[in-house]
Amino acid sequence: MNKLRDCNSQPIFNVYRRPDGFYWPKVFVMFILLSIKQIFHKIKTALTNEETMLKFYSDLERPQTLSNHDQPIDAVYFNAANKNGDHLVVGTARRKRGLIDGFLYLKINDGKVGLLESFKLPDTSLYQEKEEQKFAAEGLKVECLEPMKKWKIIYQGLMKRSSDPKQSFQVDMDIMYTSNLPFFNFDTDLDIFLTAKCMALEKWSKEYFKLLKQHHQTHYEQYGSLKGRVIINGEHFQINMESMRDHSFGNHREWKNLHKYNLQMFTTENGDRFTVGNICFPITLSSFKVGFVYSAADKKVYPITHNDFELYQHGESGTPPVDYAFTIKAGGKTYVVKVDVVDTPHFFISKDWECKVFERFCKFNVNGLNGWGASEWQHRNVMGRDIMEYETNRA
């Protein structure tokens, strides 16, 4: 009875909502609603012929028409690594008026080149010469060649050493992404019970569900491989990495509405692939746990059904942890994930620098198996571009 009366439990740090007296009834209601939605989706998919499905893939993979909102979003992102400690991260997000939120990281772990980053970083604002419906700006171009199969990444321009920004390098990159693995659509493939529990944490109202609809974004991910060549100051390097690729688009994305998120993307030595995340978007979902596991043995993708990683337990002051662990469940199997961060470069996203994003290159261990990949960690930056002066004075 005391639990039922506790209908106004205070959020942790006034941000992360906790279960109240109506939590489990709300979980039950939302689970039923999501189950019905999932059933209709499966029926629709089963009745769809191959030609229609191929058109759906083609429409999904192309650059989307931007909405009339001031801050529409259409973003493609690659995060790749291999067991040797090499990394490549590419991000291009189309916005209005020819603005591309773009960035590039390249690490050749040979003891000489090290970690290179886009010449403009920590600023991610790239501009097209004229506004085009392409993921391209200032020497960086990402293009779909075959839906759900092949993408091309091209870059020609300067990059700088992350540890010594005064050192610049001429970089010529020609990389091909290929995949024969299934993609995971966050609209339809997330575990509905875990999603129901995340939604039940929030205060429901007509306005709440209106906000959910307004801020909805389509997001899907697919694992594959990156192969190609990079020329750095005339020296040739071959690229061969496992890669996660995603595509996100929606009516609008205002980075200032994101409080914090943490996303892990990695591969283990047995060929399994993992995406594990927790997103704090306080106006709709203060703890949205997402992700999936591709099992190489089963050749199947399983949604994560349990994740004990809590955002409020890590780095709320703005400094993310460099070693941590968590447990997830997917496909009826439990995975104990240990993370050791090797590099922590960062940038400020969008033209007003609303958020600080750490692209953390990591070593992983999952149930005793070694892994490699990245942890992307975001924090709200309330100071905007003034943060540079603050950090300079603090140093």
Looking at this protein, list some descriptive labels.
395 residues; alpha+beta; AttH-like fold; 8-stranded antiparallel beta barrel; 8-stranded antiparallel β-barrel
Summarize the structure.
Keywords: Membrane, Transmembrane, Transmembrane helix. The chain is α+β, with helices and mostly antiparallel strands and 395 residues long. The chain contains six helices and 21 strands.
Describe the structure.
- The structure is a single chain.
- The chain is α+β, with helices and mostly antiparallel strands.
- It has a single domain (2-394), classed as Beta Barrel (AttH-like fold), CATH 2.40.370.
- Helix content is 17%, strand content 47%.
- The chain has 6 helices and 21 strands.
- It has helices spanning 2-5, 23-46, 50-61, 192-200, 206-214, 387-394; strands at residues 73-81, 87-94, 99-108, 114-118, 125-127, 135-137, 140-146, 150-161, 168-178, 183-185, 217-232, 235-250, 260-268, 273-281, 285-295, 300-307, 323-330, 333-343, 346-349, 355-366, 369-380.
- Strand 3 (99-108) and strand 4 (114-118) form a beta hairpin.
- Helix 2 packs antiparallel against helix 4 (192-200).
- The model has no long low-confidence stretch (mean pLDDT 95).
